[in-house]
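Sequence, please.
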């Protein structure tokens, strides 16, 4: 599948596909005789995973590291575990901060004169 087809299938731009390839998030695909890149169909799921992880707050560097840990030998279980545990701590901290902001906004909403004024 060409870069444009992959981009359409994964709902990203062709520039995003090329950027991911340059960053090492996607392996360099073989080229057709025409010179076009020929991505295997399973790369769609990799691009979707990258986008999902980005939406969840993972940086491209973290995603790259995570992909390398999963795909490249030698697999070092302790290194993987440390990486995942560190990310879990980071996520827990982010959840705590978000909950604090949510609580503060809720409290302010309850005491806001303009938001709680009786209808006129």
């Amino acid at each position: 599948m060409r870069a444009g087809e992959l981009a359409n299938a994964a709902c990203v731009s062709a520039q995003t596909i090329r950027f991911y390839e340059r960053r090492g998030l996607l392996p360099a695909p073989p080229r057709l005789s025409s010179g076009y890149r020929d991505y295997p169909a399973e790369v769609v799921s990799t691009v979707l995973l990258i986008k999902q992880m980005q939406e969840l707050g993972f940086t491209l560097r973290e995603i790259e590291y995570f992909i390398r840990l999963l795909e490249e030998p030698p697999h070092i279980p302790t290194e993987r575990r440390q990486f995942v545990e560190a990310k879990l701590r980071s996520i827990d901290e982010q959840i705590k901060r978000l909950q604090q902001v949510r609580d503060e906004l809720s409290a302010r909403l309850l005491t806001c004169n303009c938001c709680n004024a009786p209808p006129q």
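Helices lie at 3-10, 14-23, 43-55, 60-71, 77-111.
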